[in-house]
Amino acid sequence: MMSLYEVLYVMIVVLAGACVQSALGFGTTMITMGFLPLIMEYSKAMGLSIIMVSISTLYISVKYRESIQWRVMLPVLIPTAVICAIVNILSAKVSSDMMYLLLGFMFVAVAIFFFVFSNRIHVQPTPRSGTILGIICGVCYGLFASGGPTAALYLLPAAKGKKEYLATIQAFLCVNNLMILVISLVLGRLDLADIPMVGAGAVALMAGTLLGLVIHDKIPSTIFGKVIYAFVGIGGIWIIVGHMGRF
Questions:
Q1: With DSSP H G I counted as helix, E B as strand and the rest as coil, what are the percentages for the chain, rounded to 5?
Q2: CA atoms lying within 13 Å on the CB side of residue 151
Q3: Displacement of CA 137 from its chain's centroid (Å)
Q4: Which of 6, 62, 96 is nearest to 174 (CA)?
Q5: Does the pLDDT of residue 226 top 70, yes or no?
Q6: pLDDT: is 220 or 69 the higher one?
Q7: Among residues 225, 203, 245, 5, which one has the least CA distance to residue 110?
Q8: pLDDT of 211 strictly over 90
Q9: Residue 221 pLDDT greater than 60, yes or no
Q10: Distance from C-alpha of 13 to C-alpha of 149, rounded to nearest angstrom
């Protein structure tokens, strides 16, 4: 049974993650998987993160369902889903400390990429690039439940506009999240004892989602994104330094 402090901690982390997700199109698991493993097992943190982000992406997908561009999404969705399922099942055998350390390196790499290279690299939305990015996205999704940044490289230039991009990437994430959720339940990453934690997280999730949608409409994502990726990079360094001594 989680303490009141732990429940509040989960709610704050989920609220922040949901806010980022609905403002930028991705980011919930980057936040939750950076902080939830500090108070629970990595596998349980991944299971909880997937439940939270599944609710968020499903809500936004339904809200903007008329703007989803399914034909644009499929070239990257299919390889992502296949690779993600395989890697997610295999990752159950990897130690929590190793996974958390790898997560730290991934956070740093993502932060560096978006600060240095995102304005220089323009991915053409072709079936070939979709397959390549889909494989990379599937690995990231399977290991860390976080494939949004990679998917965004393909979907952002392919979408007709800001609204279409948000709707399409949320639908993309929703499909993969639901698949990982089923795998997590089968592998026992969550059980009935976690229901109060899930309920508390859901409340924070909806609040963060609604707040993030307001931010999405008010603030340019480029400005908001730089703040988030700085935070992600610092969080990654913190994770690496904190876990290097265990190996």
A1: 85, 0, 15
A2: 36
A3: 11
A4: 62
A5: no
A6: 69
A7: 225
A8: no
A9: no
A10: 19
What is the pTM assigned to this prediction?
0.73
- Residue 18: which H helix or E strand, with range? helix 4-24
Written as one letter, the residue type at 63 is K
Half-sphere exposure of 122 (CA within 13 A, CB side): 4
Burial class (CB in 10 A: 0-12, 13-18, 19+), 116: exposed
Q: Is 120 helix (H, G, I), strand (E, B) or coil?
A: coil
Q: Say whether 65 sits in a helix, a strand or coil.
A: helix
Dist CA 194 CA 229 (whole Å): 30
Taking a C-beta distance cutoff of 8 angstroms, is the pair 229, 23 a contact? no
Q: Which two tokens stand for residue 69?
A: 């561009």
CB atoms within 10 A of CB 244: 10
Give the span between the Cα atoms of 239 and 40, in whole angstroms. Answer: 15
Give residue-wise pLDDT tens across range 156-202: 778 877 788 889 988 998 998 888 888 877 877 666 556 667 788 88
CA dihedral 238, 85, 190, 202 (to 10 degrees): 70
- pLDDT at residue 118 greater than cutoff 70: no
Q: What token pair was written down for 212?
A: 């993030």
Question: Measured between alpha carbons, how far is 244 from 242 in angstroms, rounded to an integer?
Answer: 6
